[in-house]
Amino acid sequence: xxxxxxFLMALGALTRCHQLPERSFFWRxxxxxxxxxxxxxxxxFLLGLCAGLLFGAGLPIYIATGxxxxxxxVDGFGQHxxxxxxxxxxxxxxxxxxxxxxxxxxxxWLW
Length: 111
Prior knowledge:
The protein has about 110 residues and is mainly alpha-helical. It has four helices and two strands, in the order αββααα.
């Protein structure tokens, strides 16, 4: 592991991400510094912030929060209680939806 990769992993740990290898993406044999769900969440934050600043609020903040949290909660609880096994693509999508809708509503509301 290079010193730069160790640095990225330490930054990922600061986000309180569990960084489990089986729940993370790998690129060129190196693990992402955060898990698949956090990867989607951060990507959603970035694009949701852009959407909110460019286009204003997409949904009222209470509806956006409900949509955002429901997507991730359904997947998390379904996996926890054994209804299904969540996959990394599902985790990144639910994380993205959560981050996008939260920041879109928040940025639009603040702007």
